[in-house]
Amino acid sequence: MEVRWSFLLMLAGAALVTLIPRVLPLIVLSKKPLPEWGQNWLSHIPIAVMSALLAQELFVGSEGGSLLPLIAAAAAFAAAYFTRSLLITVVTGMAVIALLRYAASVL
User: Fold this and answer.
1) Mind listing the pLDDT tens digit for each residue in 57-91?
2) Separation CA 10–CA 42 (nearest Å)
3) Measuring CA to CA, how many Å separate 56 from each of 43, 48, 49, 59?
4) Where are the transmembrane segments (predicted)?
């Protein structure tokens, strides 16, 4: 199998484009402490990303307008609210969606 130079250059460019945005902030920000407002702002990023992924899956999902994911999400939200446990929240959501899909396939 022959590897072309254009492929190697493209691979190196893709690696560089991927690496720079990840490493550059780490190098720059590791030398000085972030102000409190910056740390507070950065603490909201994981929640925002998870919300965007969840909203896309729930409201633009490929299940043809099924309410099953919304019901499972409501159950998972209730579990999260009352237990504050990530494990219980995830297990509740997975169990509810599995039971609902099984019930829908049987009926």
Assistant:
1) 888 766 566 888 899 999 999 999 999 998 999 99
2) 32
3) 22, 12, 11, 6
4) 67-100
